[in-house]
Amino acid sequence: MTKDPKREKELVDQINAGWVDAQARFERLKRAIDENHALGSAKVRLEAVQREREAKLMALGEAALGHFREAKEVPQALRAALEAVKLAEARLKAQRSSIQDLLAEAEVVREKPAKRPAKK
Known about the structure:
The longest helix has 66 residues. With 120 residues, the chain is mainly alpha-helical. Helix content is 85%, strand content 0%. It has two domains: 66 residues; 38 residues.
């Protein structure tokens, strides 16, 4: 059986072209993965900074609330916000009380022996 050198060269050229194409696609995929990784890492860092900022704002708000609760004079611009916080705290206290009442009722029911139907 004789080999056709022209056909072999075509096959080798096709294989080489496929290999070059595969390498190029691999490099594009690798770059896309690296870019997505960098973007994901940046997003995680951004969220960490946002959480830190929110924690600082929460601490500031708690400190300001503590100060203005005891203050005799509250600036006009803060009065509505302070009143809204007081109302929200009252609702929170009422909700907690309601939950405690429900838990107490459930405990009473749980402790009560179940009535069994009378046998006929």
